[in-house]
Amino acid sequence: MNIIKKLTAAVFVLLILFSFSACGKKSPASHTVKKENISVAVSADTDKKQLYVSKDKKSMKRVAKSDMTELYFDKETCTVSVYDTASGKLWSSLPGKAGDEKTSAVAVSVLIKGNSYTLSSQSDSVGFSSALYEEKENGVTVNYGFKRTLEDGTKLNILLPVSYTLADGALAVEADCSALIGENHDDGVAVTHIDILPYFGAASKGEKGDCILLPDGCGVTVDLSENPSEFKNISLPVYENGNLIGAFGMKNGDSAFAVLIDEGEEIACVQACKALSGGGFNRAYGRFEITPVKSEEDKVYVCNESYSGKIRLLYRFLSYENADYVGMAGAVRELLIRNGYLLSETDDDDGAYPFNLSVVFQNYVTDSKGRTLSQTLTTYSRAQEIIDSLKAKGMENINLRLKGVSDGNTYSKKPGKIKELEKLLSYGDGEAVSFYADASLITLPSERKDASFALGLDGEKLTKDNGAFVSCGNIGDNTNELLSLVRERGMQGVCINDASAYLYGDYSAEKLCFRTETADLISGQTGAVSASGRLMVDTGNIYSVKYADMVVNLPLYAKNQGADFCTAVPFVQTVLHGLADYSCEPVNKNKNSEKAFLKCIEYGAIPYYEWYASDLSSEEKTDKSYYLNSITEAQSQYERAAAAFEDLRDARITDHYRVKKNVYYTCYDNSTGIYVNYNKSPVSVNGVTVEGMSFLRVN
Predict the structure, then answer these.
(1) Which pick of 80, 178, 346, 385 has the fewest CB atoms within 10 Å?
(2) CB neighbours (10 Å) of residue 510?
(3) Residue 652 included in any domain
(4) What does the buried/exposed string (b/e) look like for 359-386 if buried means 16 or more CB atoms within 10 Å of the residue's CB?
């Protein structure tokens, strides 16, 4: 294992060891507000010049310069613009006029008597001359003051300071949420969301090649070259539903920008809107949850406290050949390394190209009475049989995930089972097999009587699949129990199966755990597990990847890729390749396993398989999850992947694009390229021929 990862993990664990240890139960830390039928006017009619920024930088003041970027401030609108000197592109906080859409540099959503309304920095702060600014080194701070008296007599008095600074070629936008005032829950008023620079770089039209990049699954681009009559806006909660990185970007002509949400990403949703034939703008931005709420038909559950930390976004600017989704991914990667989310150091010698495998030992089924029952799919002796078969076929560096050997993080205490497991682990020690015992870090079976579980805003236990989420105050205890069992059983490594799939807030604790705090806890405990041995993570939210030796189940696709104008791209893979070994979904679980294998090759992923070995069902005759039905195919795919990628694991992806229909090209920084042909017939490209349903490496 990488010694740098071990040392970093150990230091981080020491820093957070006692964090949140005093969290106690409180059920729940929220209140309800009944929705009332009220009419609330929240926007003023203001001078048009205060709504739209000038396109001429000569009318603004330059307040900072760094590398190839310059920061300008418009005192009339209290907004900033960034000038990219390489391309001559001026990126503005406010666009020109497009229909009747009102634009803003910052928008604040408030909950009033159970109903939600939005305040604009332009019409509800600048328009009332209640936005004050102060120049500082390398930038400017604007205090947006929202002061309104509503028709029912409710007074709003909200202040949000936002600083804009330029350093190392990046625009840093920081909002201090501790300064938000006017959150009077007793009067039914709370700030629920804020939008930061929702119109930055917005445009009413797009050229061919213009796109928005979103962190949806592997990544997705939204084509901006057409203005349709309809488009469903996209909202992606960060660290939920396969949205693994708090980042996004936008391309306009020969210029582009990439954004990393550096602080507050756990409470963020990445938003994307498209210009329509009737008006509107192409735009992408971050929306941040300040006060958690949950709506039902006639009432709203409102958290008793609000997020009071900072929100920080970093904008990097790209031009010409770097102004595409690969360039945006590269910029995000650089920011993640610089700010400590990813480690730039990798192992010098990781041995042979790995063969990644999950063996399913237990399966959970529901009977006719609704009871959850366990079913044995693989015994420990049959698992050894699988290993023997792989070794006989020349597979050396095997990473074997023991899936379903635990109930939550509690491993079997039956003497016979313990002996069988220890025998398997001992056997693997001499056969170059790295075992990763599957374990949960944040979920346990909901029937566990000795566990403290998290509550939602409605006071109900937070559940998912067959388990429930532990209270934030018990994540550390859960980890300690896991590590104790790992040491007791002599396991070399752990696969955390749940900490990357979902992020939650716990509203049952005496000291509330917002999603930001839960993420810190999970990251710290992931470091603790890593410090004790090898670590594999399932899915790979960016806060859990830092200490991992292997990431599996990284998304190959995007949920929105089938929607109009949306195309899946290897954004996440481009960020990670060369910094962490990763696999995507199990090849043999796909209906078209050869296509899934080629997708791994296109995206630079180590092929991954999931098997079982039992005599339970006649389905074994055709089921590719039964190891004998796909082991020969896996051997062939492994050998092809190893031959092409043995020396590319530390390389960085520098380009990826569609060559022609169903043919793609991925380039690495050591001047190696991979063509992938999904057509059934051969295709000639750039003087070489790629066979049908195959790939070709070129140097």
Answers:
(1) 178
(2) 11
(3) no
(4) bbbbbeeeeeeeeeeeeebbebebbbeb
